[in-house]
Amino acid sequence: MKIISSDLQTMAVAPKGYPDDGLPELAFAGRSNVGKSSFINAMLNRTNLARTSGKPGKTRTINFYLINEIFRFVDLPGYGYAQVSKSERKKWGDIIELYLRKRDNLKAIVLLVDIRHKPSAQDVDMYHWIKTFGYDAIIVATKADKIARGQWERHMKIIREELEIEGNDFVVPFSSSKKLNVDKLWDIFEPMLIQETLEG
Ligand code: GTP
Ligand code: MG
What we know:
By secondary structure, the protein is of the alpha/beta class. It has a single domain (6-199), classed as 3-Layer(aba) Sandwich (Rossmann fold), CATH 3.40.50. 34% of the residues lie in helices and 22% in strands. It has five helices and seven strands. It has a seven-stranded mixed beta sheet with strand order 1-3-4-2-5-6-7, sandwiched between helices. Helix 4 (152-163) links the parallel strand 6 and strand 7. It is globular. The structure holds guanosine-5'-triphosphate and magnesium ion (MG).
């Protein structure tokens, strides 16, 4: 995929703030600090388009990135961050759920998990939820640069088993810092996003 343009189009917490057109969207879900915003930057070859942080809880709104004027990446707030109040956590959960439930533009969901760790109960819930609603899921195992390449397969197996990954869903190791598997993921994303555009 050749990226000609990528811009933050808008930020929203409620449906009335979402872009009001039919462009296809790919949404990124996962625990706080797993690397969602870093993933978006790496895929778009930008250093600081999506704001990242060493501290979890950076992205607190739904951020819509318009790419090549024809589709969007949607950065969701991370879940599972213990350091915020219960009411604040519920608010983020509601923001995410409302988007995932109501958004016709949504074509598939990318679930990011840290390759080093067993998926959390919330990751498992999120994956099952994605499947219950009939979406394709792409599982991206982030921070692969933090373990030896020889360990990847063992960790990916744990992820596959813990999430009970269904046959057609991909699990792809990824590293934002090393730009690992950027092209492979574009090959997976492209037909989900472009075909829709051609069909109108
Ligand atoms: P929230 O916005 O809080 O939900 O977090 P996020 O999922 O958007 O995470 P973010 O992209 O802000 O990254 C969190 C931290 O992980 C930052 O310090 C990143 O530099 C680091 N990080 C992200 N991806 C990678 C990676 O592939 N490798 C390494 N080594 N660090 C990474
Ligand atoms: Mg973020």
